[in-house]
Write a structure and sequence with these properties.
Oligomer: single chain
Strand order of the largest sheet: 1-2
Radius of gyration: 23 Å
CATH superfamily: MetI-like
Mean pLDDT: 85
CATH topology: MetI-like fold
Number of strands: 2
Low-confidence stretches: none
Number of helices: 10
Distance between the termini: 50 Å
Structural class: mainly alpha
Amino acid sequence: MVSRIARNVAISRFWWVLCIASLVGALLVLLSLFGFVFVRGIAAIRPEIFFTVTQGIAGGLANAIVGTLLLVTLAMALVVPVGIGAAIWVTQFAPDRLRIVVRLSIDVLFGVPSIVVGYFLYVALVETAGWGFSLVAGSLALAIIMLPYVYRAADLAFSAVPRDLVEASVALGARPLTTFVRVAFPWALPGTLTGLLIGVGIALGETAPLIYTAGWSNYMPTLAPTHSPVGYLTYVVWTFINEPFKQSHQLAYAAAFLLMVAIFVTNFVARAAVEYWASRTRSHS
């Protein structure tokens, strides 16, 4: 009996140490990555980068910064109504068979490589439809990549709404739409925003699908929907680091630093908003 207890204690301590070591290892990798980008990126940041467009493999990053913001913003505008709307329909109104089909399709879309999405839109929009490299084509590529994350988070969030709250609302005489707007939606909003946050972070880091759809431009992007290539930060990181020039490397490090800061700030602000809204919703319910 004593030996069995000692063995269980030893096994428990072993797994405890293994978990701590895994956590420390993951943190060390993360801190090393952030430290590398921070040290090299902060040294490459200079004021003119934000006001000068790229000139070949030199110049600034104004066109890439604006292009990245436009691409991600338009992608969000496209994916929010589709992803969240589909999740609401599936969880609230869809028959069981269609619910299974939609969820299976989203799971399949999770596994599609982003470069395949980019090449498909290149053939369908850039070549066949004759749009050329453009803001809309690039945003559509990002929206398709973001869609599974936004939908799945919203699906889980709306499915997790306590049934007791819904039944209590109905018992008090509230209409289905009122129950959804006043009870289900506020409860599911934090989880839905988390999925959107993840999608934005992934979109900020995509390169391959944009090469096939947005192309690249050394000029400031226009709002023309088609036949207007767009610059973006990930292209600078991917392309300029391979050039044998110090100036191009500086731009690549600066672009990587700006992307890291954008993702960090987006996560921090959105997480704070989600926690605030979640606590407010739980307290009111």
